[in-house]
Fold these 2 entries.
Entry 1:
Amino acid sequence: MTSDDKLNMRILICIGGGPEAYASLRYAVRLSKTACADIALLYVRPLDSGLNSGGMEVRVARENVLDWGLELPGLRQLKAARDILVELGEIEPGAKREWKHSEIKGDPAGEYIRDYENPCGGIISLRLRTAKDVTTAVSDEAKRFKADVVIVGASPEPMTGLRKLFSRKPLALQIAAHAHCSVIVARNLEPGRNHLVCVQDTDQSRAMLPMVSRYFQSCRYPLSILSVAPTEADLASARKAAQEAAQILGELGTTPAEILVEVGDPVETIITIGYDFSLILASESLKPWFAKGFSVSHEVAEKARNSVMIVK
Amino acid sequence: MYSARTVIHFLREKRWFFLTLAIQAAMLLLPPPEGVTQEGWRVLVMTVGATILFITEPIPLPAVALLIILGQVFLLGLDSSLVAKSLMKDSVLFIMGSLMLAVALVKQKLDKRLALLIIKVTGSSTYAIAFGISVFSGLLASFIGEHTVAAMMLPVALSLIQLATDDAKQQRALAVLFLFSISYACAMAGIGTPSGGARNAIMIDYLRDFFYAPDDPATHGYSVSYLHWMIYAYPIFLIQLPLMHLILRRTFKTDLRDLGPAVAKLREQVGSEGALTGRHYVAIVLFLLTLAGWVGFSSKYGMGTIAILGAVLFLVTGLVRWQDLNSGVNWGVVLLYAAAISLGVQMRDTGAAAWVAGMFMDGLAPFGLNTGLGLLAAVMLLTTFITNTMSNGAAVAVLGPIVLTIALATESNPLAVGMVTAISSAFAYFTVIGTPASTIVYSSGYLRPTDFMKVGWRMALMSFIVLLTASKLYWPLIGL
């Protein structure tokens, strides 16, 4: 494996959940500039139900729409994302590519891919998929694309109170719990500020550091290390975790800009300190998918007002 | 080897299926409630399971149909040939034939000529176009089925929206106005004639099955003809149509009052298609012949036979290929309707429908809603609730036996109760899945589920008032 191979990132961005995903494009482009990342923009449309359409396949209507030269839903959103990438210089303004049809879920009027090459030779692909369940579709596509990172937009205002009780878990958090690779829960994800890596004295935390190093060599943002001790008694362990992380990262070629050790509630402390950073990074929990919501990293991803990356 | 993750994923995806099985198992372990036979209880267990699976769709819907068939053989102990026989009725033939006709008509590309006709009549005013779209959609959908019209009108509306402006906000404002003009007009028109939708054919079959006896002239009114259905229901649709437009106008205001440039571009685009060709004329004639067959001969030969004949004529003349019909019709849904109707018949035969009807009436009695207009209002509310959670055809298939038994028990007019059920199954204004037309326009990607809620309650209130008024003032006048 060459050093270039190590740097090359594959980023999957979910389009369609709201404006946050479009904002994260600039961030992905920054990664692309330094690491020549492959970027896939994914729009997932729900599968049509034959019963709901009274027995006539919705596909008949979709084919009629295509016959008029109109675009399928999803293509509009993907094209808007493509236009942003054109503005950012990742796609040549006049570049024309045909949509390639694919039939992953068997919908002949639903699934398309369009590929572009960016200036450094990476591939930017627009992908339209159909699926019954968006979370599963994104997880599947992340595997198929061999993504290193999935970026999915989340509401800037976390749900609280009764609304939270009666609402489904936000899509971004569901994807964060199910995807095989690292997931960025994006809120105003703009390049510009430093990144904060949260560590603990656990094997899981140490295991994420090679991925973190690889990521930072791609984006080249200054990083800070934060370790939070729940009580004064845990302070020694927290210091050890921070120092150890700095050493491991240093050996991997990433030198942290600062090391912070705090005492307090881990979730609240990380959210408070992390607010000044572009991105908070925390390691994935070892809990099963249905219990991940009770882990520090997923709680931070749920409650933070800025972006959080759950590193796997 | 399946990994634990795959198994967990499978269980998560199928959770409603397993929950349904658990509920059914728990119900089967309980002794039947007083007044229900063992067979009736088993039918109710199957109905509860089927309804949950209709709504949540954890397994493919044709599989639900097959489970109903298996349940009738294994749980109820019925002879498999009898079960097979109970699946195929005229209403099922009608559903099959009308779906084939729907695909055949959409494939004729008549929509571009239709677009030209609409803008020629309405001019370029936004609201006039919206009203024109709903009038054309409604008139067509009342005869040829709402999914056909929604599929034909969808590109007309989308073209106008995209040609009118590039501003996403203004596009959405136009989209909600135009797309709801299509879907609500189609939904309320679908009840105008028996050929407007599967639910009407299902109710006609139930009315015949429950009340019609060839040797008793007093029951002949329950064999509802095409023309009689129109006399009962068409005026209700015609009254609702302009009211619907006013509600949409008030709910979804747009700054784009004139679509002159968009209309000109559309005229240029679709005008290049030229005039109607011989093929188009043949298609129109074939459909008119089918329509004439429904009006004139469906009492004798059945609506299903006429629909199948129409589809065969389209195939024989080469206007549509079997491949198109085969891929455009969801045959699983046809099977599902067949199984649901068959289950409905078992609900009646085992007394399960009577027991549920009794429970329903006991609940209504304290409010004085168990007779007369109150009963009709209660049936309307119940149907509206059910039809917003599942397709309107399935809602009528599930509710039909229950409401007709209620009519029998309360000595109400079964025809009026049946018509109210069928008509209010069109009041699926609150959800995307309520009617086929709503599902089709929602597939454009311009609408949000909350849009349906925003306008739905106004539409439902208007429709309730119109239907109750019609059942109180109009139906008695015409002897229903």
Note: The mean pLDDT of chain B is 91.
Entry 2:
Amino acid sequence: MEEATTLVTPQMEASKGVWHSFETSFPITATDIRRWAIATYWGQMPPRLFWDEEYARTTRWGGIVAPEDFNPFAWQLPRELTEEELRLQGAIPGQETKKGDNILNGGQVDRFGARMRPGDVISSRSRLTHWEEREGRNGLTLYTYNETEWTNQRGEWVKSRVMTLIHY
Amino acid sequence: MSIFFEDIAVGDQIPAFTRKTTMMEWSRFAAVNEEFVYVHMDDEAGQAAGQPGAFGMGNLRWAYMLNALRDWAGDESEIRELAMQFRAINQKNDILSTRAVVVEKSVADDGAALIHLQIDVENQDGKGTSPGRAIVAVPSRA
């Protein structure tokens, strides 16, 4: 079998720097926030800021806010996934993966702005900013850097993330 | 209850947030974050990706670090930045502990009192899995 010389696709070249994946979340609910906090603090009571409105009103935030890592885009309505989205699912049981189709989250850098609150509707957009390829322990490896930006319904900046995906 | 800028010194280490990560912790997180990715749920898929079995989510380690920062800094503080590299894979039943050390104090242009931390999430062997940095704005008495 011929060895791949690059994992960079024409689609990547064409999409570099172009904002895409414009999404709008469902309104965040207090239940969404409480469940998130319970899951990540499992084994102990989560902070009252995430579930006790009376307490949260006494803080500088004036009410319940979401954890910084809360994802309002989880559990959007189900839909047909594109071929690219299916590919990004990575290894699938019983299915041999092609070179480059194994994908790991290599890390991320987040900057946080306005806190997310119950009732907020978050808008998101993403773009592929750049990439690099090098030989790693799994052979040719591609690192892609994707930027995502979130704003709320008041136009306030909520979060920016630059995520590294490792393809091998 | 909150910390104050003046009470924090370079070299301070913040209390760890520690969890043993079993399929229970992963499943709870997958259920809120819709992170039902085969390599995190299915041993066969994890093996196909070159691991001993299903492995943990980087995002859950990320959450543990945020939990540690919040528990330390208190509700009046504000996490402004978090950066983490997922350098090693978190295997099933690993005991993960956050590690964060104050490396710098500064005042931002907007007057915010900032604490800069060097961070990592270590496993039960003391091996770092997720090196990075954090910036937290904390209350000041000034």
Note: The radius of gyration of chain A is 19 Å.
